[in-house]
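[Automated response] Your request has been received and processed.

Submitted sequence:
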Amino acid sequence: MTTYLFAGGGTAGHVNPLLATADRLRELEPEATILVLGTAEGLEARLVPERGYELLTIPRVPFPRRPNRAALGFPAALRAALARTEELIREHGVDVVIGVGGYAAAPAYLAARRVGVPIVVHEANARPGMANRLGAAFTRFVGVTFEGTRLRHGRVVGLPLRREVETLDRAAARREALELWGLDPAKPVLLVTGGSTGARRINETVSVSASEILGCGWQILHITGSRSPVEDPHLDGYHLLEYCDRMELALAVAELAVSRSGAATVSELAVVGVPAVFIPYPVGNGEQAWNAREAVSASGAIVTADANFTPAWVRRELVPLLLDRARVARLAAGMASTGVRDGADRMVALIREALSAASTNVSS
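Generated structure:
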């Protein structure tokens, strides 16, 4: 019986592909032990136990980016996290470590290398994070989501997605979505979303511009997120949701999206074939702009900077697009050409390849 240790988390971008891969392993190997290494502060602290997996925690050890008091304490904190991770790997008889990035990934890679346990890496973003750059130096089993990702040994496997998205029957789900949200079957749907916590610029601009968008003959399904101050203007054809727990239905009914370009959003839209106007998150290391590049190159999406996404931009760029249904259809075809539907299966194959290689090395 194999014991798998997934490591990483912090954000939904790390946790969701981790869980999608773990779920696929559980389907294929119900007798296997699947553990997750994370921190008590990350999103994994809630999502992992909810999905039925045991969460092992280590202290959160951020890598210092400037010389300060935290930097002075970093070596000791990393040693402690590394020692605890090594102890957990030995205690649970872990056969392979699968890292997805985030605070728990780096100690897991270092501990696995010290113990001699095979390592597999998955990088969701087109621009790799520091932890996964470290992990990729220790293994040749490295999966990436996007073409052109500069990560040692990286091979494209796509993003592991939820079954609901992988197997989406768009026609059947569209009927359910229309009924669930009271949408007009005769009008195309513009899906607007900035993620679970929302995107202020997107929310405010779309809210202000709603009348012009609706005037193009479209309807709006606007998922604002939990922290948005935007209020429902109660316009005919404008459907506001704070949170959507049936995102596959929103994808099924959408003909165009306005959204951030996190790896999961880009990947899910591509698999379903929904073209997009991407407004990358302007903070961080610029990974969201990189995530959108493949879709843009395939003529499946348009990108504009967060600061540029204003009511004036909507009038100048979005309204003409909404009025040109043939162009929207061409964008949809381009977007669909970039989709990878079997990312979870590809990751499982990569993990099994790493285990097989380790077994061969031991036997020889």
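Summary generated for your ticket: The chain has 15 helices and 13 strands. The longest strand covers residues 33-38.
If you did not submit this request, please reply to this message.
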